[in-house]
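Inputs:
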Amino acid sequence: MNEELSDRLARYLAVKLDASDLQVNGLSRIPGGASRETYRFRAHYSKDGRNIERGLILRRDPPTSLIETERSTEFRAYQAFYKLGLPVPEPIALELENAALDRPFFIMEEIENCQVASILLPDPYGAHREKIGEQFFTVLGRIAGANPDAIGLGDLDGARQDCWRHEVGRWERVIEEDEREPQPIARAAIRWLKRNPPPQAQKISVVHGDYRTGNFLHDADGNIRAILDWEMAHLGDPLEDLGWALDPLWSHGDPSHPAGTVSRERAFEIWERASRLKVDHAALAWWEIFASLKGLAIWISAAREYVDGRNTDPVNAFSGWFCLSFHNKVLADRLGGAA
Amino acid sequence: MKPEVDQILGLSASQLLGGIAPLLPTGYAQGAVSLVAFMMILSAQEYERAADIRVAENNDVRALFKSLAAQVGDAELKAKLETAAATADSSLKISALDAANYELRRLLISLHIYMESQPGENARAAEKSIWQTLRALADRRALKLPSQ
């Protein structure tokens, strides 16, 4: 199957890159979440008399998609933040039609000799945890501080007023559509979020939507080389991303050091400096509850995909079981402790 | 003596992680096999406790209904709570326990919404009891990572 896919990919890229001799080698599937099939390959071609070899990544829609995310959103986010100088892979091509590879896809630069931390590892960054934390929260601050209109992302999904309501509604609908069994903790969390809304956002930003440990590439020297998985990018309150990044599920077992890196206090300092915004701690507490509810919605959706046989990638089973039980406990402890 | 299901799952997972995954090319296949093995380890835990946690959860929720039904002014909801409180699990099959559990959870959500809408100290205390039950539910179902 990979041979056929290689040939079709080569034909597509030959046209796209205006390189009739383009060849695709070493196409192999790599882990990349359940919402896209991710492949690594090398493209060989000549251009202006030079022989070029590039490592590239193909991100193709699966037969069904976990959360209906817009691949053009992800591609445009890569374009915008690549131009802004943030560590993201260079986007190469976006294809929304099915003719070339049966499903929509996009192609981007491969960031080589890097790794992604598993959320199951207790201390994935070791001696580089502080260095990675500095970069992790600085980049997040720069995303928060960017002007969506100025970088061409002002039309992304989201709300500029009461963005909290837009986001709660979005994930409530996902739960309503996908839950198989009644979810009393998720339902109670939704009601709590609606009863205790946060203040208006101090600024409307591009929200990455899944900014966390495990969604960036880092090298052996502790340099973050690429922020990945922008498929849930939208407009909203920048505290949404911060709340998600701080979530205990992404803390490698130590919530006092989010993302397995620096302390929470240090993370706030770095983020404030990079974003030129202030952390409103009362509002952030709301967004942290929201983060766990959003997690539940995603895991419920993953469980549905798996159980219905639409996408039996083991990541969906893990998400729909382990992550679901994890966030149920986080929310029950946070909200139940306050009851 | 025969190997028990949890032992088979655990040892098979070890085989996959230690003997088979390293033979696969790095990338999606190795990652997927390792994750499957990891879930087999979790499944081994679940084999031992699955019926027990469902029975305990169902009984907890029934006891909660029994203790709070008298505070419910909505006659229809009160009748449902009293009926549910008097039920019992007659089968230990997971499918039967889950079916009962889902019915109880639906009613628990209704009870929670009702109490949130009521004024007064009794309603706040009832909310607290509901959250205690929810916390116990979440605690029982929490999965322990092999490294913990």
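The helical segments of chain B are 5-20, 28-68, 75-85, 94-117, 121-141. Flag for discussion at group meeting.
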